[in-house]
Amino acid sequence: MKRFFIFIFSLVAYSCWSQMPLQETFNLMPWPKTISAQEQQFTLTPDLSIAIDGPKSNRVTTAATKFLRRLSGRTGLFLKEGFPSTINNRKDASIILTYTTVSTLNIKTDEAYKLTVTNNNIHLNASTDVGIVRGLETLLQLISNTATTYYIPGVSITDEPRFVWRGLMIDVSRHFHPVHVIKRNLEAMAAVKMNVFHWHLVDDQGFRIQSKTFPELTDLASDGLFYTQEQIQDVVAYANTLGIRVIPEIDVPGHASAILTAFPNLGSKPGYEYSIERNSGVFDPTLDPTNEDTYVFLEQLFTEITPLFPDDYFHIGGDENEGKHWDENKDIQKFKAAHNLKTNHDLQTYFNIKIEKILHKLDKKLVGWDEILTPTMPTTAVIHSWRGENEGLPKGGTLIEAAQKGYNTILSNGFYIDRMESIEKHYLTEPIGNVTLSEEETARILGGEATMWSELTTSLTIDSRIWPRTIAIAERLWSPKTINDVNNMLKRIQPISFRLEELGVTHIKNRDVILRSMSNNQDISSLITLQKVCEPLKIYARNKDGIEYQTYSPFTLFADACVADAPDAVAFNRLVANYTAAPTTKTKTEIKKYLTTWNTQYEAFSALDKNPTLNTLEPLSKNLSVVSKTLLDVLDQKTISKTAKQQFTESLNILKQDHVDVEVAMVNALENLAKFPK
Ligand code: ACM
Question: Which CATH architecture describes the domain 165-194+379-508?
Fold first, then answer.
């Protein structure tokens, strides 16, 4: 027995030991299920060719063609063959893609693949064409180089996802995002093997999908910003080619200001002046669940639009209905009493069940936010868990509860990227945690979705709010649970993130677009220095009570150029933590380098021709300089005068306050350094 344990221990130790160096070597995201490396490499030359060995698949042809363009773009190689061939024409191709079926997209789609790279060729095998699409992304991530060649390292990878539902929700109601913005994000999703695009099409701030049956919806409640049905079909087809399912969301019965602007007679408060909402928050306009016309309308609407979305699932929202207008309506109260519906939750369930029947007739399965989880809700519904335990819900929100009660379920609590929190938090959001579930219950946890609510996000900034943090979420949902080393992830994500630019994603470059605009095209280097240490206020603190910004406010401000995990602040925080734990000359030198940059930026900032927008950054720029200068003197062991000390404290206090909707993300480290007189 003892020997057996030693054997098992050695096996575990070996596998940890053998996996870790590979994670240090290769920058793959999401990290594959198994990977081993060989002392081989496939050298990339102009002779590279791809042969397709499988039934005709638009997905594979498109993915292989794009693969060749991306490879050639990265390497500068002038490939002799710019397009894939069929295996019959090119048995000797260097990359052979083998699969047996063209898959329809659903939660059972097989996305597994096996990739083998040797000195002589590359084999990518999968059961379905979707597996090939996934494997080609891994292959692109493996491209490496020396000073003289580009190559793919010799590896053997067997990979498949942990969860079948790996989604990104984009809210296009609060701010509309045109088709090209959606498409570039679909490309980025596919690059990190995500497979569900949840399209939040309707909310208080706008109805964004054309209805030919009810043209009033977009005529009166979209400000002209909506997708035509042809555009919807185009996006769905585009996503399908990338192996991405599209789930539409029409949020009912709450979040209904837009619908009720067009059809006030369906509202719960007769005489109320419904209008498109311009602020953020939770509002009262709610469909009247006691009015049969509501169901006639929704059935006609859903009958018209569900054919545009071939997926099995349809999201009805169902969140944040506080039922205020229900409480104020005597007829609704009477209806509740007559139907023995004790609470507004019961009334909403009555509504949900009727909607579920409509969707069932249309061959769709209902998905709703976790408010729909009530005792009488049929278990055919999918529960989308978004609220946390601090809202009186069990640990893990409703995800575990839903799975235990027999519902399929997906997680977004912990994946709210619009809260502008750190990547680490999202990465370490483990859906199942240490809860013991039966095999059946575990299988009901389908996966999760990053949610990009866009109250504070326009098409200029949406990419930088989604990426790179969503790459970490993609890995959480694809890779084995044991892949959770934050530092290693932060290393691997660097090349994966910047390569998304190849797909047209603007998460990096739009920083400079905003700063150039703010400065009227002057030298933005001092502004970049500030941007690298400032983070937008988190957890909706930026838009207090939802009324500081309207949908038409400027989202071209300094805070919009800033991102979560401000890079220089993150690096500095680490340096100071290391330095205060165990001071070394090397760390001190690195710290001084940052402080010098922060000290001198003020001179460059001061030299800029000012305008009212730039002026808002003056306190930030000036006080950062003051604090940094004093800290340099402290580190150089100079005597600090009483006045300088006072000025330091004053400046630090100013930096601790919110400025222009950002926080200085290393202000605590600056303070700690001052207290550490080495
Ligand atoms: C939600 O965030 N209201 C689902």
Answer: Alpha-Beta Barrel (3.20)
